[in-house]
Specification:
By secondary structure, the chain is of the alpha/beta class. Helix content is about 40%, strand content about 25%.
C-alpha cells in the first residue's frame, strides 16, 4: 500500500536527516565543505524519491535547477535538503530538513526534521501547544538579526533568542521554546514552506510580516518576510510592524 502525502513527507525528511548525519560522521569534512557534501547527498536522495513516488507532481528544491513546468501544476513539492547549511557544517543542532507539499499555492502538508535533536515535526500529527511565556521570546538570526525584528522586539518588550536555521526557529515556536518568529531579511519558498505547514497545523499564526497570506509555487521564489507566532501575539506583532512603516 502506498503512503499518503503526509507519511511520505515525514519519512523522506527523517531519512534525509539520517543521510546527513552519516555524511557528517563518515566524510571527514567540516565547515563549508561538509555543508556542500551534505546538501548534495540529501538533495539527490529527496529529489530521486519524490520523482519516483510522485512523478506527476511538480518539484522545487533549493539545490536543483528550477523547472518552470511546476508553475502549471496544482501539487508541488518544495524541499530544502539542508536548512541551515552553516549550522550543519559547524556540527550544531539548529539545522533542519524541509519536505512540503504546496497545493494551489498553499503550504498544505509538511515535515520538518531536526536530526540533531532526533525529532520530526509533522503537519498531520499536531501536538497541543505548551503554555506561552508572559514575556515573549522572539527568535532572530544568529548572524544577521533583521532591523525590523529588533525594533518589534523593543516595542513588545520581547526577549531575543538567537538561533540558526529558519526551520529550527519555526519549530522552536511549535515546541513552546519561543512565542514569535519574525523574519524580514528575505528568504525563499523552500526556507518556509514546510515550517509554515507544520506551524499552521499546530494552530500558530502564519503570514507575511504585514499579515498577508503566504503564497507558494510562484515564478519568483523569493519571499521577503515571514511571521510565525502564537495566535495571542499575532495582532500585537502586526500592529508593531505597521507602526514601523508609518
Amino acid at each position: 500500500m502506498s503512503m499518503n502525502d503526509a507519511e511520505l513527507a515525514a519519512q523522506l525528511a527523517q531519512a534525509a536527516g539520517q543521510t546527513l548525519l552519516a555524511v557528517r560522521m563518515s566524510s571527514g569534512l567540516e565547515g563549508q565543505s561538509l555543508g556542500k557534501a551534505g546538501d548534495a547527498a540529501a538533495n539527490a536522495f529527496l529529489c530521486e524519491a519524490l520523482r519516483r513516488e510522485r512523478p506527476d507532481d511538480g518539484l522545487l528544491s533549493e539545490e536543483e535547477k528550477d523547472n518552470p513546468a511546476r508553475l502549471s501544476k496544482s501539487r508541488v513539492w518544495i524541499v530544502d535538503p539542508v536548512d541551515g547549511t552553516r549550522e550543519f557544517g559547524e556540527a550544531r543542532c539548529d539545522w533542519a530538513v524541509h519536505v512540503a507539499l504546496a497545493i494551489d499555492g498553499v503550504a498544505t502538508i509538511g515535515a520538518v526534521a531536526l536530526p540533531g535533536l532526533d525529532l520530526v515535526l509533522r503537519s498531520d500529527q499536531p501536538q497541543p501547544l505548551p503554555p506561552g511565556a508572559p514575556i515573549p521570546r522572539m527568535l532572530v538570526s544568529r548572524s544577521r538579526p533583521a532591523r525590523e525584528a529588533l525594533a518589534v522586539a523593543e516595542i513588545l518588550g520581547a526577549e531575543l533568542v538567537p538561533m540558526g536555521s529558519a526551520g529550527a526557529k519555526a519549530m522552536a515556536v511549535v515546541r513552546g521554546d519561543a512565542e514569535i518568529y519574525l523574519h524580514t531579511g528575505g528568504q525563499y519558498e523552500w526556507d518556509s514552506c514546510a515550517p509554515v505547514a507544520v506551524a499552521a497545523a499546530h494552530g500558530l499564526h502564519v503570514s507575511r510580516a504585514d499579515g498577508a497570506p503566504l503564497v507558494y509555487n510562484q515564478p519568483d521564489t523569493y519571499m521577503p518576510d515571514l511571521l510565525i507566532c502564537r495566535p495571542e501575539w499575532a495582532e500585537r506583532v502586526l500592529t508593531a510592524m505597521r507602526s514601523l512603516a508609518d
